[in-house]
Amino acid sequence: MADFDKQQILTFYGHQNLVYSVIFSSDDQVLASASTDCTLKLWDVKSGRCIQTLLGRTIATVEKQ
Question: The pTM is what?
């Protein structure tokens, strides 16, 4: 992943509550975020666009395997 100088590059909007976990895909193209609003969202990193929203009563913390 690129080395950024701690400046905000993009903000991802869409969750309705606290985001408690985020992780990048192995190719750094997709970001997954898990929220206390019971959603897991997949984001296109370049555009900041939400690709997919997964709904559930319980979403586990996203962890890199």
Answer: 0.74
